[in-house]
Structure prediction request, 484 residues.
Amino acid sequence: MVFNSIHFVLFFATFFSLYWFVFRQNLKIQNLLLLTGNYIFLAWWDWRFLLILVISSIVNFLLGIYIAKTENEKNQRFLLILGLIQGLGGLLFFKYYNFFVYSLADAFSLLNINLNIHTLHLILPLGISFYTFRAISYLLDVESGRIKPTKDWIIFFSYLSFFPSLLSGPIDRARNFIPQLEKKRIFDYNHAADGLRQILWGLFKKVVIADNCDTLVNQIFENPQAFSSSTLLLGAFFYTIQLYADFSGYSDMAIGISRLIGFNLTKNFNFPFFAQNISDFWQRWHISLTTWMTEYVFTPLSFIFRDYGKTGTILAIIINFVLVGLWHGANWTFILYGLLHGCYFIPLILRGTLNKKKHNTKDRLFPTAKELINIVMTFTLVMLTLVIFKSETIRDAYIYYSDLFSTSLFSIPTIPGKKINILFTLLFILIMFIIEWIERQGEYGFATLGLKWYRPIKWTMYYGLLFIIFYFTGKEQQFIYFQF
Prediction:
């Protein structure tokens, strides 16, 4: 069940009622209810996904306890390696087995050697990339002494399976989330109202913007040779907006739902399309993954390569972003996508501006000319690279680029489908950009907008937004990041 479905509304209404009105006095039972809700939510998709998650939870729960108990450093390291093998092994098997098999067969075919290797019909368990990274960070933090392991299995199992963020993040660290499970939660009206506003904003981005972009994007990317360059440019633009509205919309809903039940999740997006360079972009986009990779991959690699100066930093960043790309899926397109983003950092490293923070003007209604140029250039770079991210193969991306960079780039786009729908979508995209620019110092696009307005005007805005969402609600469309 997806957040924008009637099934989820019924599920959450029942869960919310029991959570706050029946079991709020007993933290242990409330956590047990949360764990039950987590498992029902995942089993709704496929009970086999639940079995894999439970096994991972048991293994990592026990390993965390024994790593902390063991005084011998070598034994600690051995137990940690076991945990990494279990977590990464499962992820590699379900997500990358067939990719490695095909790649190996293709490599040997270049030598005219035919390997009789069989692939497996594997279904990628939903959320495995997200809860595996949670489990790995938990074991690494326990082994390093940053946190003490929890001895309450209900708390740990709930942490790994927390249903609002289970399928597409954010990837919360145990040191931030487990303490919230350990203390009594009290319903806060203002906290809940803020959560509802964030859910409303997430729904708007998902249903009104992302889902309306989907049809146009698919038509263009499925047959790019049938369209002019200007239409392909429009397709790349709409896909960039779709991916952002879909993924950040999910994050907004996940964070908002969590606030309704007394939890604070990691902020996952910080208005990335207002970034002024690629480093700034990645500090704003999928923040929980970026910070995870920075802490557990880039920082150790930087230490290893520290004697090589800027060359070592470049190497560490490229490896880090290749892994970021590979995390998204078993495809050479994702590897190339990550490699390119890693290479985009090279000029910043060579100029010594990698860690120089870029801030949009706070008190001005409009950006300065320099800010606007930087924002447009960064957005364009991200947009063009996402063509690879969207393409099924590198050859498909090459065809798209070949048709994109031609003289028809300056022609009027030939828009497939009803033009009125595209115009409305463009209008809503513009509204999203305006609201997010106004709210760019806030937690999300709708955080403070209208809070101090005259009540009838404020509620007219809320109901108007609800009307637009219901008007465009049709077929339930899954979130893009469910496939990762």
